[in-house]
């Protein structure tokens, strides 16, 4: 039997399908585990020996829904329950009348 081009035509079964957690084609159908993110394990699969693989999936690389709000609050010292100071233009316009 040859292992080259002639055997490629016989390959029509899928071993991996799309992952529901990371979206890559990494779900092994017979193992029912995901090779890229490790689903259904609770912790996401990541290793220190592959810095390139960690890079696009670390913190501060996505939408940062929560962290960008925290960063904005940090700049103003986490103030809560106060009204904002009026803008200078609004103060100048009201004083000119």
Q: Please, could you describe this protein's structure?
A:
The structure is a single chain. The protein has 97 residues and is an alpha+beta fold. 26% of the residues lie in helices and 9% in strands. The protein has four helices and three strands; from the N terminus they run αβββααα. The protein has a three-stranded antiparallel β-sheet, with no helix packed on it. A hairpin with a 4-residue loop joins β2 and β3 (33-34). The chain is elongated and about 95 Å long.
Top keywords for this entry?
97 residues; alpha+beta; 3 strands; elongated
What is the structure about, briefly put?
With 97 residues, the protein is an alpha+beta fold. The protein contains four helices and three strands, in the order αβββααα.
């Amino acid at each position: 039997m040859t292992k080259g081009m002639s055997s490629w035509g016989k390959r029509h079964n899928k071993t991996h399908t799309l992952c529901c957690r990371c979206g890559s084609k990494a779900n092994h159908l017979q193992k029912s585990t995901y090779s890229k993110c490790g689903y259904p394990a609770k912790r996401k699969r990541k290793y220190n020996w592959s810095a390139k693989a960690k890079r696009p999936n670390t913190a501060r690389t996505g939408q940062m829904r929560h962290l960008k709000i925290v960063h904005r609050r940090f700049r103003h010292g986490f103030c809560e329950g106060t009204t904002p100071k009026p803008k200078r233009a609004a103060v100048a316009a009201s004083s000119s009348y």
